[in-house]
Design a protein that fits this description.
Elements: H1 2-12, E1 24-28, E2 31-37, E3 48-56, H2 66-71, E4 86-92, E5 96-101, E6 103-104, E7 111-116, E8 124-132, E9 135-141, H3 158-216
Antiparallel strand pairs: 1-2, 2-3, 3-7, 4-5, 4-8, 6-7, 8-9
Protein backbone atom coordinates (compact mmCIF):
# COMPACT_ATOMS: atom_id res chain seq x y z
CA UNK A 1 0.00 0.00 0.00
CA UNK A 2 2.84 2.39 0.88
CA UNK A 3 4.59 1.66 -2.42
CA UNK A 4 1.38 2.29 -4.36
CA UNK A 5 0.93 5.68 -2.65
CA UNK A 6 4.57 6.62 -3.33
CA UNK A 7 4.22 5.72 -7.02
CA UNK A 8 1.06 7.80 -7.35
CA UNK A 9 2.80 10.75 -5.66
CA UNK A 10 5.70 10.60 -8.09
CA UNK A 11 3.30 10.52 -11.01
CA UNK A 12 1.41 13.54 -9.72
CA UNK A 13 4.42 15.74 -8.88
CA UNK A 14 5.20 16.80 -12.47
CA UNK A 15 1.69 18.19 -12.87
CA UNK A 16 2.02 20.66 -10.00
CA UNK A 17 2.17 24.33 -10.96
CA UNK A 18 5.68 25.79 -10.73
CA UNK A 19 7.44 22.41 -10.65
CA UNK A 20 7.79 21.73 -14.36
CA UNK A 21 9.76 24.20 -16.42
CA UNK A 22 10.03 24.08 -20.20
CA UNK A 23 11.54 25.75 -23.19
CA UNK A 24 9.70 27.84 -25.77
CA UNK A 25 9.83 26.74 -29.40
CA UNK A 26 9.10 28.64 -32.61
CA UNK A 27 9.99 28.55 -36.30
CA UNK A 28 11.70 31.01 -38.65
CA UNK A 29 11.64 30.03 -42.30
CA UNK A 30 13.35 26.66 -42.55
CA UNK A 31 14.72 26.76 -39.01
CA UNK A 32 13.55 25.62 -35.60
CA UNK A 33 14.27 28.01 -32.69
CA UNK A 34 14.16 27.01 -29.02
CA UNK A 35 14.85 29.16 -25.95
CA UNK A 36 14.92 28.54 -22.20
CA UNK A 37 16.84 29.38 -19.05
CA UNK A 38 20.06 27.59 -18.07
CA UNK A 39 19.05 27.31 -14.41
CA UNK A 40 15.41 26.88 -13.49
CA UNK A 41 13.60 28.23 -11.65
CA UNK A 42 15.28 31.52 -12.49
CA UNK A 43 15.02 34.09 -9.68
CA UNK A 44 15.58 37.82 -9.54
CA UNK A 45 19.05 38.90 -8.47
CA UNK A 46 20.84 35.79 -9.77
CA UNK A 47 22.99 35.75 -12.88
CA UNK A 48 21.52 33.32 -15.38
CA UNK A 49 21.73 32.63 -19.06
CA UNK A 50 19.21 32.23 -21.81
CA UNK A 51 19.85 29.09 -23.85
CA UNK A 52 19.22 29.35 -27.56
CA UNK A 53 19.01 26.27 -29.80
CA UNK A 54 18.82 26.63 -33.58
CA UNK A 55 18.42 23.68 -35.91
CA UNK A 56 16.89 22.86 -39.30
CA UNK A 57 13.11 22.56 -39.33
CA UNK A 58 12.23 19.13 -40.65
CA UNK A 59 9.25 19.12 -42.98
CA UNK A 60 5.94 18.01 -41.42
CA UNK A 61 3.61 16.73 -44.19
CA UNK A 62 0.75 16.23 -41.75
CA UNK A 63 1.16 19.58 -39.92
CA UNK A 64 0.45 22.76 -41.86
CA UNK A 65 1.31 25.25 -39.10
CA UNK A 66 5.08 25.78 -38.80
CA UNK A 67 4.91 26.52 -35.06
CA UNK A 68 3.17 23.23 -34.36
CA UNK A 69 5.62 21.48 -36.65
CA UNK A 70 8.55 22.95 -34.69
CA UNK A 71 6.98 21.89 -31.38
CA UNK A 72 6.64 18.33 -32.63
CA UNK A 73 10.42 18.04 -33.10
CA UNK A 74 13.50 17.95 -30.92
CA UNK A 75 16.72 19.90 -31.30
CA UNK A 76 19.21 18.12 -33.56
CA UNK A 77 21.86 18.95 -36.16
CA UNK A 78 22.33 22.47 -34.73
CA UNK A 79 23.35 25.37 -36.96
CA UNK A 80 26.86 26.63 -36.16
CA UNK A 81 28.50 29.99 -36.86
CA UNK A 82 25.63 32.25 -35.78
CA UNK A 83 27.34 33.98 -32.85
CA UNK A 84 28.10 37.14 -34.84
CA UNK A 85 24.94 37.00 -36.94
CA UNK A 86 22.38 37.02 -34.12
CA UNK A 87 21.70 39.06 -30.99
CA UNK A 88 19.29 38.63 -28.11
CA UNK A 89 17.20 41.56 -26.95
CA UNK A 90 15.54 41.43 -23.52
CA UNK A 91 12.46 43.61 -23.07
CA UNK A 92 10.86 44.30 -19.68
CA UNK A 93 7.44 45.92 -19.29
CA UNK A 94 7.60 47.13 -22.91
CA UNK A 95 9.72 50.07 -21.71
CA UNK A 96 13.19 48.80 -20.81
CA UNK A 97 15.44 47.03 -23.30
CA UNK A 98 18.91 45.56 -23.32
CA UNK A 99 20.63 43.90 -26.29
CA UNK A 100 23.22 41.21 -25.58
CA UNK A 101 25.61 39.25 -27.81
CA UNK A 102 25.56 35.47 -28.03
CA UNK A 103 28.18 33.05 -26.73
CA UNK A 104 28.64 29.72 -28.49
CA UNK A 105 28.53 26.41 -26.63
CA UNK A 106 31.79 24.67 -27.58
CA UNK A 107 30.35 21.21 -26.93
CA UNK A 108 26.93 21.48 -28.60
CA UNK A 109 26.83 22.86 -32.17
CA UNK A 110 23.87 25.17 -32.66
CA UNK A 111 23.54 26.00 -28.96
CA UNK A 112 24.18 29.56 -27.76
CA UNK A 113 23.92 31.58 -24.54
CA UNK A 114 23.01 35.15 -23.61
CA UNK A 115 23.91 35.91 -19.98
CA UNK A 116 21.91 38.32 -17.86
CA UNK A 117 21.16 39.18 -14.22
CA UNK A 118 17.42 39.95 -13.98
CA UNK A 119 16.79 42.32 -11.08
CA UNK A 120 13.00 41.99 -10.95
CA UNK A 121 10.52 39.16 -11.19
CA UNK A 122 7.92 38.69 -13.90
CA UNK A 123 7.81 38.00 -17.63
CA UNK A 124 10.46 39.12 -20.08
CA UNK A 125 10.07 39.29 -23.83
CA UNK A 126 13.02 37.98 -25.83
CA UNK A 127 13.62 39.26 -29.34
CA UNK A 128 15.93 37.31 -31.64
CA UNK A 129 17.42 39.77 -34.13
CA UNK A 130 19.76 39.26 -37.07
CA UNK A 131 20.20 36.43 -39.53
CA UNK A 132 20.23 32.64 -39.49
CA UNK A 133 22.67 32.21 -42.34
CA UNK A 134 20.78 33.86 -45.23
CA UNK A 135 17.41 34.08 -43.44
CA UNK A 136 16.54 37.42 -41.75
CA UNK A 137 15.21 37.03 -38.20
CA UNK A 138 13.07 39.34 -36.07
CA UNK A 139 11.31 36.94 -33.73
CA UNK A 140 9.68 37.65 -30.35
CA UNK A 141 9.46 34.85 -27.78
CA UNK A 142 8.62 34.50 -24.10
CA UNK A 143 10.76 32.26 -21.86
CA UNK A 144 9.43 30.98 -18.51
CA UNK A 145 8.82 33.81 -15.97
CA UNK A 146 11.34 34.98 -13.37
CA UNK A 147 10.48 34.20 -9.76
CA UNK A 148 10.83 36.67 -6.90
CA UNK A 149 14.04 35.97 -4.97
CA UNK A 150 12.13 35.41 -1.72
CA UNK A 151 10.75 32.26 -3.40
CA UNK A 152 13.90 30.33 -2.44
CA UNK A 153 15.48 32.38 0.38
CA UNK A 154 16.00 30.61 3.68
CA UNK A 155 16.00 31.10 6.65
CA UNK A 156 15.74 34.90 6.29
CA UNK A 157 14.59 37.02 3.42
CA UNK A 158 17.28 39.26 2.02
CA UNK A 159 15.52 42.46 3.04
CA UNK A 160 15.28 41.21 6.65
CA UNK A 161 18.94 40.32 6.71
CA UNK A 162 19.77 43.69 5.20
CA UNK A 163 17.65 45.44 7.84
CA UNK A 164 19.55 43.59 10.55
CA UNK A 165 22.88 44.65 9.06
CA UNK A 166 21.71 48.27 8.91
CA UNK A 167 20.53 48.12 12.54
CA UNK A 168 23.84 46.64 13.66
CA UNK A 169 25.77 49.30 11.75
CA UNK A 170 23.60 52.02 13.29
CA UNK A 171 24.32 50.71 16.79
CA UNK A 172 28.04 50.55 15.97
CA UNK A 173 28.01 54.16 14.77
CA UNK A 174 26.23 55.23 17.96
CA UNK A 175 28.87 53.47 20.06
CA UNK A 176 31.67 55.12 18.11
CA UNK A 177 30.09 58.56 18.59
CA UNK A 178 29.67 57.87 22.32
CA UNK A 179 33.31 56.80 22.56
CA UNK A 180 34.46 59.91 20.70
CA UNK A 181 32.47 62.11 23.11
CA UNK A 182 34.03 60.33 26.08
CA UNK A 183 37.53 60.84 24.68
CA UNK A 184 36.77 64.52 24.01
CA UNK A 185 35.55 64.99 27.59
CA UNK A 186 38.71 63.36 28.92
CA UNK A 187 40.83 65.62 26.73
CA UNK A 188 38.99 68.70 27.99
CA UNK A 189 39.40 67.56 31.59
CA UNK A 190 43.10 66.89 31.03
CA UNK A 191 43.58 70.35 29.54
CA UNK A 192 41.91 71.91 32.57
CA UNK A 193 44.14 69.90 34.90
CA UNK A 194 47.25 70.97 33.00
CA UNK A 195 46.18 74.63 33.18
CA UNK A 196 45.55 74.34 36.91
CA UNK A 197 48.93 72.71 37.51
CA UNK A 198 50.64 75.37 35.40
CA UNK A 199 49.00 78.18 37.34
CA UNK A 200 49.94 76.50 40.62
CA UNK A 201 53.58 76.16 39.59
CA UNK A 202 53.61 79.81 38.46
CA UNK A 203 52.21 80.90 41.83
CA UNK A 204 54.86 78.91 43.69
CA UNK A 205 57.65 80.45 41.61
CA UNK A 206 56.35 83.99 42.24
CA UNK A 207 56.10 83.27 45.96
CA UNK A 208 59.70 82.04 46.05
CA UNK A 209 60.91 85.14 44.19
CA UNK A 210 59.03 87.37 46.62
CA UNK A 211 60.48 85.52 49.61
CA UNK A 212 64.04 85.86 48.29
CA UNK A 213 63.60 89.59 47.75
CA UNK A 214 62.19 89.98 51.27
CA UNK A 215 65.22 88.24 52.81
CA UNK A 216 67.62 90.42 50.84
CA UNK A 217 65.93 93.54 52.13
Amino acid sequence: MKYTFLLLSLLLIPSLDGIVYGHTVDAVGEYRVEIGWMNEPVVSGDTNGLELYISPLVSCPDISISLECANSQEFQNGIEGLRKLLKIQFVYNNTQTITLPLVSDHNVPGKYYAFITPTVSGYFQVNLIGNILETPVNLSMHPPPIKERSYIEFPELTNLALTKVIDDNTKLVERIISLENTVQNLENFSNQVYIGIGMGITGIILAIIALVKTRKN
